[in-house]
Amino acid sequence: MEKKSEEFERTLTEPNLLTLVCRWLESMPVLQDNTIWDQYRRAADLWLEESTETDISCLEKRRDLMDSLFKCDQHKRLVDQGNRKFTHQALKGAIILRTYRHEKGYALANRILDSLVDIDTMLSKWRFI
Fold first, then answer.
1. Which H helix or E strand runs over 64?
2. Which GO molecular-function terms appear in the entry (predicted)?
3. Which helix (H) or strand (E) holds 30?
4. What is the pLDDT of residue 108?
5. Pairwise CA distance, residues 24 & 86, whole Å
6. How far apart are CA 50 and CA 57, in angstroms?
7. What is the per-residue burial (b if ≥16 Cβ within 10 Å, else e) of 53-68?
8. In the chain, what are the domain boundaries?
9. Residue 115: which of 28, 31, 21 has the closest Cα?
């Protein structure tokens, strides 16, 4: 019985899955060079400029969302409010993974991320059964 208690205590001090996934996403080598992220930002800005959205409030919401992706302080505010869980660097890694998911170097990592999302969804459903 004491062994189980020790194991339980040990799990309280070890990093949780979210922390480990964030570390993994933050460690993506592509994040060391801002070239891809800068290209992504330019594409997002162009998309917003070319938007045919006639509803100004909707367009402003999109712009605010994009700003929260690119501006670390805005992202941190959302994390502090409990609206986001990933660090800014981990979020950037996840976005790049999703964007380049069909490329050879990103396909497996993207499948891992998809599997984690599937597991989270199944656990959420199971919790409410």
1. helix 56-70
2. heme binding; L-tryptophan 2,3-dioxygenase activity; metal ion binding
3. none
4. 93
5. 11
6. 16
7. eeeeeeeeeeeeebeb
8. 2-127
9. 21
CA atoms within 13 A on the CB side of 8: 5
Cα end-to-end span (Å), the chain: 31
What phi, psi does 71 have (nearest 5°)? -105, 115
2-127 carries CATH number 1.20.58.480 = yes
Contact 44, 51 (CB under 8 A): no
- The owner of tokens 């800014």 is 88
Nearest to 71 by CA among 100, 54, 53, 91: 91
